[in-house]
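QUALITY CONTROL LOG
STEP: pairwise intake check
CHECKER ROLE: data steward
CRITERIA: each record must contain a sequence immediately followed by its structure tokens, with no blank fields

ENTRY 1 OF 2
RESULT FIELD BELOW
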Amino acid sequence: MLLFSILTGAVAPGISLLTYFYLKDRYDTEPIHMVLRVFLLGVVVVLPIMVIQRGLTLLWGDHPFLFAFVISAGVEELVKWFVLYHIIYNHTEFDEPYDGIVYAVAISLGFATLENVLYAVFQPASVGTLIFRALLPVSGHALFGVTMGYYLGKAKFAPKKSSGKYILLAAAIPVAEHGVYDWIMGSGTTYWVWFIVPLMIYLWVKGIRKMNRANARSPFALLVREEEIKL
């Protein structure tokens, strides 16, 4: 019974956040089965990511800066970006800018949810610890996903000459954001909270703005406005 409660507490933040971002799609919500498949892809990539990270740690050591920006943030975000680009980017269901956010958040939260479950099972996990992880690591992964999906959405519907730039930004900016997060959390300073709280506020504010912009650029938004005018 205790294990069930711990697992529920570990899974709930990811599912709740995924539901939140999914329901923010104003015009043409994605098929739930597609979103769940991408969420499960996030679960599946945990193992190869762990193997790559372990290998790089053995090769390069665990220097804080290198670990934060390359071994942790770099590997995790680039693997998620690679999967999204090759499996989702050209999919027919990716038909409006906000879809990039939905799918990027889904794969990010799939990864974060399994990571949270493994932490809860193999580390002493109190209610306070699970709340802490919901507010920081799990939310952080979701917000890095918002950034990635936003730029993939821009790339998908931008002129061909500028789409490459946005595809690169979809990888580079989440790596930078994630790296800063990991750098703060791994710094060892007793004042880490004074840095992580402003960072999370910034990510949430920026993320919500990007969500609004992506929704506003939906091709379905014009159709809705035209219908409203006719009525």
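ENTRY 2 OF 2
RESULT FIELD BELOW
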Amino acid sequence: MNNRNRGKNTGDDTLFGSEKQISKLKRAVQDMQYLLTREYPEKAASELAGNRYRLKTRQLHAVRGASASRLQVDNRKSKELQISDLKDKTLYLDGFNVVILLESMLSGAYIFEGVDGCFRDLSEVHGSYKRVNQTAKAVDLVASFFQKSHLYKLVWIFDQPVSNSGRIKQTVMDFAEEHQFNWEAELQYNPDKFLAESSEIVVSSDAWILDHCKEWFNLAGYLMKEESLSVNLITIVSR
């Protein structure tokens, strides 16, 4: 029986569970945006912010994910589509990025809202993907979105080098066949490059993809509102 989930890591409540820590992370994001806007390299900017606020590794990971220059934010916002823009369109979905984020959201892990309005988690695929308790529900949520958006076709893109990518691809295709959805699933050796260069709408919270793609849709943001998901959301962006 599968008892795995993508919930919090040991120590995450200490790193992210108090106003003191959230305040520190907000200041770090402000500093990083200031530096990135002035064309500091991301590595240098994150090292400066991390050292200044004495951030732990997972805190720094969250800050990096939430940060972007003002030019990056403006560029991403200019390409963001709304649900009403998707009717009869084809959409390419960054498979592991989306599935793992939804699994994390559903299992109570901390989720971070960035300056670009995207939502990110702290989970990573280190060469191998394993199903968790929330995987089926994650696919169900994508299915609900697919039906409500009236998309023509949804194409899942998975990383071929990742172990078990073939299994999750088959899971998605079996689900599509069962429900008669117009879905496809592909394995790509370099999915980031593939998605960034695609002329189709993409779904991803990967910063590099968002910077280079033609158009994108904020699926996690949509699902949180539309499905009234209970999410352990941390906003480390100053309003």
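INTAKE CHECK: passed for both entries
DESCRIPTIVE NOTE, ENTRY 2: The CA atoms of residues 59 and 139 lie 29 Å apart.
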